[in-house]
Predict the 3D structure of the following.
Amino acid sequence: MSLKSIDPTQTLAWKKLQAHFESIKDVHMSSLFSKNFKRASEMSLEWNDFFLDYSKNRITAETISLLKGLAEEIQLSDAISKYFDGEKINKTEGRAVLHTALRAPKESEVFFEGTNVIPEIYEVKNKIQQFSEAVISGQRKGFTNKAFTDVVNIGIGGSDLGPAMVVDALCYYGNHLKVHFVSNVDGDHVNEVLKELDPETTLFVIVSKTFTTQETLSNATTIKQWFLQKAAQADIAKQFVAVSTNIEKVESFGISPQNIFPIWDWVGGRFSLWSAAGLSISLAVGFDHYDDMLKGAHKMDVHFKEALFEQNIPTLLAMISIWYNNFFKAESEAIIPYTQYLNQFATYLQQAIMESNGKSVDRNGEKVKYQTGNLIWGEPGTNSQHAFFQLIHQGTKLIPADFIGFSKSLHGNQDHQDKLMSNFFAQTEALLAGKNDAVVAEEGTASEIFPYKIFEGNRPTNTLFIEQLTPESLGKLIAMYEHKIFVQGIVWNIFSYDQFGVELGKQLAGKILKEFSKQSPEVHDASTANLIARYKNIR
Ligand code: F6P
């Protein structure tokens, strides 16, 4: 059974939210705090090693109750069951969306088209474990019998961003293997990576769900040619492995069948780091850490499936985000982790969120008449404070932000950690309270610059406060955003799991590429025709 199609704007809850918005839109959060001393505790919740404080939002208890009403009217719980139960909720591609099964315990059962998928998932997990352990221990060697020192992950989009983000995030837990990522079809990218590498001690992991992606196949071919300058064709089996659903194409690339790690159609590319697409993670940090990440994600899955609306972290975050997107008309959301380890987190979330919910046709095939997917951006604090925070504090745009912090650092430098966390708390405090005329006057500010010193405040933030960055807590965090994406797609009545929007550009690039070696140009708009002609003249 497919997902129901309910226009959220036609629900009673939406109409009530609209009326409620009119009454609350100019209310300053500071006044909500002074009216209710219990606000911080009422609007925060603790789950496992996570503490979520969502009190610094432009909401009241009534907002939450109306958002809950909206979730009920659009039948969110029915959709959640279909998501976890392997229904083909990716209707436009005729697929289920079962990345949650990849992190389910061995004894669980998840059925897809009548077959329990857990045994085959664990078969591949065993293969990942054995392979990673053999490479890390040095038991598996390269073509000149040397142990591996480097790994190159060749993939793009979901076959790159998730593994790259996690390998970076968990580098504290890493071993001696240096993991590199080659994604861009820009030849300078692959050449920059290769220049550091020794073909005798480098393992290549080609990750492509379809094994048809131009960037990945071009990079893999270039790397194979580079490798074959030193090695023989038969050595490819020792140093190239692939992760794909397209076994035939992988084999015709020259990779031996025992070096193929399968994935399934029901794993979306941008949710595939839990599958063999995460092989580089297991190589970088060892299988046990990789598995801990999966266990963390599973805990979040159970929480999402079972927790009541008021206690449900992904659901609350999703609905609060809809409140800003659809009622306050906020266009973007910032993700600010206070750890350098999550340097690539916002980039990773850009694909997960924007490729999923950047849609404008509803589940009935009609053009939507309301806003859907948010623009996602961000950088770690404190660096971001010295970059774009000016605009968040004093600009004209409303930018709700998620602040993600960890109580304990990994290297244990308390002096730095205290400074980091003081900034973490200070920023959300400043965004909430601002600085009014009275305070600016007290500071003895000269009249010419008086207005520039005022901070309106009332800028919303969520604070997600986690004990420590571990493989398990990272797994929970990623899964939290995955479920937020799901909830928002359900409310917006769109299909979150296809990505037809990336195809047109790919098709046109294919045509233009052929044109470079042809005399007669194809028909283009005048601007594109000029640009192509110019390139052909000087390339
Ligand atoms: O950008 C489109 C896309 O299909 C992504 O969804 C996917 O993650 C990426 O390309 C890579 O695809 P593949 O793993 O098939 O090479």
The first strand starts at residue 44 and ends at 47. The domain at 8-73+307-491 is CATH 3.40.50.10490 (Rossmann fold).
